[in-house]
Amino acid sequence: MSPLTKEVVQVYDTTSMKRVAAIPVDSYPVGLALSPDGTQIWVTSQGRGLKGGNSVGIFQVEYKLKENVSVSKDPRLKSD
Q1: Cβ atoms 22, 41 nearer than 8 A
Q2: 25: pLDDT confidence band, cut at 50, 70 and 90?
Q3: What is the pLDDT of residues 50-75, one digit of tens each?
């Protein structure tokens, strides 16, 4: 973590809603995106004053799939 910032992206297990990680990022993060293939998180930061900013952090994502869930294109329709 940069000594100039304490900003983090919190990572949660969506099943238990418990925090599983905190990723340090540059000051004043304002944007977050997941890459189309799900292997990276992109965080944009604009910074404040002389505390960094105007940056994009790229973080590799590693996770274990607990189970497969079948989902239809229309969530109102039941999938088989």
Answers
A1: no
A2: confident
A3: 666 688 999 998 877 667 666 666 65
Q: What is the pTM of this model?
A: 0.62
Token pair belonging to 67:
């189970």
Q: What angle do CA 59, 13, 33 make, to 5 degrees?
A: 35
For residue 56, is it within any domain? Answer: yes
Does residue 69 belong to any structural domain of this protein?
no
Q: Burial-class residue 57 by CB neighbours within 10 Å (0-12, 13-18, 19+).
A: middle
Query: Distance between CA 44 and CA 35 in Å, rounded?
Result: 13
Domain count, the chain: 1
